[in-house]
């Protein structure tokens, strides 16, 4: 049986104060979206602002909006592994899972923003080392959430009979989403993740989908057991009902289950409201 469709909004904190962030997450909650996502960067990644402007820290944001929303699932698309030790990330994630009463999706990636690392003094390892770190990190995250006093001996991370309480609300652990289009990262995702995320503008997206299916099959995992999330940058996909249907149908045909769009500016949200209240319910009925 195909997995159900879910719909989300990417609510990046670029140039946003706290009140506007709250309003956007509450809008996602009000409109019935399945999930809403923040952005893990310390400076803006918009193409036209050279990094200038406000950018509030995303896990602090999630803790705040978790307390003032009621149904929408929350996550980061995606957390950069190089910014936090996975034990700290696990503690942050479990805290948000409790505040939200079990509505967190733990989104994680290997990290990519070299300029940001340099600016704030974070070491920026080679791509191979970042993936090595990521592979260890997902194991640490799993152990801390599921085992009593785990020990882990990795090259990059270690645990020593680590006391980690409370465990998450969600069992056996918080769902893990991995954002990637790289071959080796797909192998790790196939072994460990509940969701795979990739960008709609990724070149040869059908090839990436086939690569991911093959990665699952090599380890004996049913590819359809992993939810597939696709994110399209910009607001074009929610500019009209027809544009949104086209976005969903195109990617549904490739096996995607979760569809994430950017949020348009406040004066351009009439179509978004119609999509949320009319188009999405009809798509759910057809699935």
SSE arrangement:
Elements: E1 6-10, H1 18-30, E2 35-38, H2 58-66, E3 73-76, E4 79-80, H3 86-99, E5 104-109, H4 114-120, H5 127-146, E6 152-153, E7 158-159, E8 176-179, H6 183-192, E9 195-199, H7 205-218, E10 227-232, H8 241-252, E11 258-262, H9 270-286
Parallel strand pairs: 1-2, 1-11, 2-3, 3-5, 4-5, 5-8, 8-9, 9-10, 10-11
Antiparallel strand pairs: 6-7
Helix pairs in contact: 2-3, 3-5, 5-6, 6-7
Enumerate how many helices there are, as a single number. 9
- Straight-line N-to-C gap: 10 Å
Based on secondary structure, the structural category is alpha/beta
Q: What about the largest sheet?
A: 8 strands, parallel, barrel
Spans of 5+ residues with little confidence (pLDDT < 50)? none
**Which sequence of strands runs across the widest sheet?**
1-2-3-5-8-9-10-11
Helix amount, in percent? 40-55%
Shape, principal axes of CA atoms: globular
Offer a few descriptive terms.
11 strands, eight-stranded parallel β-barrel, 287 residues, alpha/beta, globular, two-stranded antiparallel ribbon, TIM Barrel
